[in-house]
Write a structure and sequence with these properties.
Layout: H1 2-6, H2 23-31, H3 38-55, H4 61-70
Domain Bromo: 14-63
Keywords: Bromodomain
Protein name: Bromodomain-containing protein
Length: 73
């Protein structure tokens, strides 16, 4: 169990994403009324999808899920 706790939380090169975004940040921005328009919210969601595709190979389940989910935005 201790060995698992020492594992990095993110994969290699994760910090190389120029504009990171995650659902926790989006939730905090929603609660703080930082989204002025629905489009601002959508832009952050699309940034998550774009980062997912940059970070993961297009054939991975993560990238495929991002592509499917983005169609609903």
């Amino acid at each position: 169990m201790n060995e698992l706790a020492r594992q990095p939380r993110h994969g290699p090169n994760y910090n190389q994403l120029l504009h990171p975004m995650d659902l926790d940040t989006m939730e905090a921005k929603l609660e703080a009324d930082q989204y002025m328009t629905p489009e601002d919210f959508i832009k952050d969601a699309q940034l998550i999808f774009a980062n997912c595709r940059k970070y993961n190979d297009e054939n991975t389940s993560n990238a495929k899920c991002a592509n499917k989910l983005e169609k609903y935005m």
